[in-house]
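Please fill in the sequence for the structure shown.

STRUCTURE ENCODING:
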């Protein structure tokens, strides 16, 4: 679970002092400071913190492991779900295949025996027919051989029909029910795997580790942060511009800034211009008091420069070209 908050190293009182002292534009540029939108990484499901891979001050790449929670129970749930899926799939396959191979073989053996019996009954009846025509045997013996042949043929036909039925899959409603059971088992396995994956949390993007708020062995509740990250693209410069200069700055303009006492310059791009003066004591809005109005500006730090600056660092800001995009 990820939440984003702002971290500002300067207090509101300090910001107001900076605004007051900057009512007139300094010759070297506008005054401001660096801040960051911090990302709080917390577990989706609570549990004991089993392993913490990072410490404050580290830099992590996207995909790097941040922390693990205890996972024994969740791994067992995945194994159980896999077993349930195998059983459901086996039940479905059994219904689709019909009778077991041993039962099919038994039916085929019975058919072979009945075919032999029918052939014998046919030979006996044909012989009795010739004897009956010569009045050698009684009518009763002739009738018995005829009906025995017919009975054997019926039994043979019935056995062949039973073999066809045994080779057919189960009834459609049972097959549909078995398929639904397989689908439910697949969903249960997917859910168990997802819960297991949540026990191993990795960085979603490159970031600085600002701090860790828990230690190994402690219980981490769902939604409570464990690691605090600052992605480079979340670094920004907040600076303050007096009213005479506010119309020269627009969203998208490029700026340069450098920490106080340093000659190394970094770049950022304006993404927000305050709609009203906020960081000054109350004043009467008049033409004479306009120069006292201060507007807050925010600019996203170039990610290539973000590695070299820290949140809370006071900086001086210059426009690269007023109104440039």
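FILLED IN BY: designer on duty
SEQUENCE:
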């Amino acid at each position: 679970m990820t939440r984003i908050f702002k971290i500002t190293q300067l207090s509101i009182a300090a910001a107001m002092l900076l605004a007051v002292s900057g009512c007139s534009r300094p010759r070297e540029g506008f005054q401001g400071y660096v801040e960051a939108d911090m990302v709080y990484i917390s577990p989706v499901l609570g549990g004991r913190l089993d392993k913490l891979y990072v410490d404050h001050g580290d830099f992590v790449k996207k995909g790097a492991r941040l922390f693990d929670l205890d996972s024994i129970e969740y791994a067992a749930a995945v194994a159980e779900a896999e077993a349930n899926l195998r059983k459901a799939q086996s039940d479905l396959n059994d219904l689709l295949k019909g009778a077991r191979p041993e039962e099919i073989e038994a039916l085929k053996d019975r058919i072979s025996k009945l075919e032999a019996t029918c052939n014998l009954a046919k030979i006996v009846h044909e012989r009795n027919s010739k004897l009956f025509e010569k009045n050698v045997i009684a009518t009763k013996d002739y009738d018995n051989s005829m009906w025995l042949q017919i009975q054997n043929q019926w039994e043979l036909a019935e056995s062949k029909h039973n073999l066809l039925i045994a080779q057919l899959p189960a009834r459609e409603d049972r097959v549909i029910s078995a398929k639904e059971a397989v689908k439910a088992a697949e969903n249960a396995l997917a859910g168990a795997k997802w819960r297991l994956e949540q026990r191993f949390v990795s960085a979603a993007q490159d970031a600085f580790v600002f701090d860790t708020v828990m230690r190994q062995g402690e219980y981490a509740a769902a939604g409570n942060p464990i690691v605090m990250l600052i992605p480079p693209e979340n670094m920004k410069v907040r600076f303050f511009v007096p009213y005479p200069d506010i119309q020269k700055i627009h969203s998208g303009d490029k700026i340069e800034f450098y920490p106080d006492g340093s000659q190394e310059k970094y770049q950022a791009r304006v993404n927000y211009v305050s709609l009203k003066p906020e960081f000054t004591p109350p004043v009467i809005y008049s033409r004479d008091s306009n120069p006292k109005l201060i507007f807050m500006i925010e600019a996203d730090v170039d990610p290539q420069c973000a590695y070299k600056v820290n949140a809370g660092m006071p900086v001086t800001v210059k426009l690269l070209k007023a109104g440039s995009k």
